[in-house]
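Supplementary Text 2. Reproducibility record for the structural model of the 205-residue chain.

All settings were left at their defaults, and a single model was retained for analysis rather than an ensemble. We include the record here because the model underlies the residue-level annotations in Supplementary Table 4.
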Amino acid sequence: MENIKVVAFDCDGVLFDTKKANMAYYNQVLNHFDLPAMTKEQFAFTQMYTVDQSFAYLFEDKTTLEDAQTFRKNMSYIPFLKFMEIEPYLKPLLEKLRPAFKTAIATNRTDTMDRVLIEHGLTEFFDLVVTASDVKRPKPHPEPLVKILEHFGLKPRQMIYIGDSELDESAAKSAGVVMVAFKNKFLSADFHIDSLKELEGILFL
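Retained model, structure tokens:
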């Protein structure tokens, strides 16, 4: 791993356990429109895809979808931040990675990512953050990862990406970067870990 220059992370499910936060967020919108709470299948979808894709999935009626999008754009995400649980050992790991490595985020979050980092005191730990708003084609397309490679002027195998979903797997494979599967043994990856601390054994061999 001596050629690795950048360590990039997905957000939901890697940096944070966001299940409670995302469940509360989407269910509040559904409740506003007198719709039932999310099913397991709907929730699984929203955990991976962008907010626009998730809303299109949850609201099949075009008129209701437009109203729901308007509602959510005027709804603050701040009340849901308290439900986010930062991954154990994240901050110590980030402190140890820098300055030896550049650090980045590639996430399908859109307009909430900045607030999440500010609220958890993580802004200073990342050199680059790429959200779904920063690309034309979010994950599973490799564009977010390619954008990071281009920003730092790197070859694909000089970057390692930590993700937990099939979308992360597809993006990493298409971009040609080193893939680390986080808490998901079913993904095809170069490495599998269950704790961020295990990254040290990969990066500091």
